[in-house]
Amino acid sequence: MTYRDLETGADLRELVARLYPLCRSITGDGVRRTLEIVGEHIPLEIHEVATGTRVLDWTVPQEWNIRDAYIKDASGRRVVDFQESNLHVVGYSVPVSRKMSLTELREHLHTLPEQPSLVPYRTSYYSPTWGFCLAQETLDALPDGEYEVHIDSTLDDGHLTYAEHVVPGEVADEVIVSCHTCHPSLANDNVAGIAIAAAFAQTLENPHYTYRFLFMPGTIGAITWLARNQDRVDRIKAGLVLACAGDPGSLTYKRSRRGDAEIDRVLAYVLADRAHKIVDFSPYGYDERQFCSPGFNLGVGSLTRTPYAGYPEYHTSADNLEFVSTEAMEETLRTLRDTFAVLDRNRRYLNLSPYGEPQLGKRGLYDSLGGRSDAKQAQMAMLWVLNLSDGEHSLLDVAERSGLPFDSVAAAARALHDAGLLKD
Ligand code: ZN
Questions:
Q1: Which residues surround the ion ligand 1 when the cut-off is CB under 5 Å?
Q2: Does this model's pTM top 0.90?
Q3: I want to staple 207 with a disulfide (CB 3.0 to 4.6 A). Which of 108, 169, 212, 404 is the partner?
Q4: For residue 352, how far is its CA from the centre of ligand 1 (angstroms)?
Q5: Is 43 inside a domain boundary?
Q6: Which one, of 61, 139, 66, lies nearest residue 96 by Cα?
């Protein structure tokens, strides 16, 4: 099996464009089709969890699928049409087929009076109802009269679908990267994150940690995953929930609940040289809510561009393909790579020759620097690593305190380790 590359911004954009039209929800065939497409780029292990399965304090709901939906006026014209945009139907709408007056219908219509040209995104997962979403402008143009309402959906016992992609590392300790797969045609809020996570997964080669990518519906998916992996979450060293990954706003990192987890420090370091915001944890937003619930309290933060609900296009039809920027997606991808390049090499070492400076020359460590344009920096990095490797300080501590680039510090540590002067 060969997998399709996601190397360029154009590749990312193409994947986003393929995923965008699918009608996803927390369950159903839209999620399966999404995972099938992602599976053309990276191998995925698909999990199907039956309706009714108890997961922590929740229960896996019935599976929702939809084929068509519309509101027709008296002339038979579709004035609201699911085929035009899947946002037009409230997610998890129960089937309906009847005629009613506009007055009666209004109780089932959702608009955004403040943004009259946009269609809102609404769901009703846990209380059975039906509804349509439309632009206020469309509603205002509807004359009184009788309308035909039709939602061809099914809500049956079935499954909740999620997927994992694992890149094995040298150690069983894990890093998780999680993104939600439950939003229909919203480009920034979930599709961009899915594409970027897949692209990042492709770039990982022989990592130190084992990387586990999770593609699962928000809330119930994360809860299901945690319920099924409760006995192994202590392996998770760090993680990121990736969402809203392609809008033109600057990057935002939301700290883990712990606030001082390794991932929090690494992100602060990596983001320092690009436009960004760092915010403290709050029990709202995406699946960091579940990973950072007090029973788990994992070192998992959340990387977005403009955060949850922080942009006017959020949860509306304006979160479309034009709203996501290729450059922004490329920058988010670069940030993921830089973050895990630091985290993956960050360790604490012990200087095995801590009394006075060890003689570098006789171990060939000066020769290795000869002729390098960055010889001075490489030498400083060795001296800093030797000095701070007391078992207490990590390489990130060394980089921060010395002001030297992390790459240089990590390279020095490798050379010193190979020369027998450091141990893990
Ligand atoms: Zn959302």
A1: 189
A2: yes
A3: 169
A4: 51
A5: yes
A6: 66
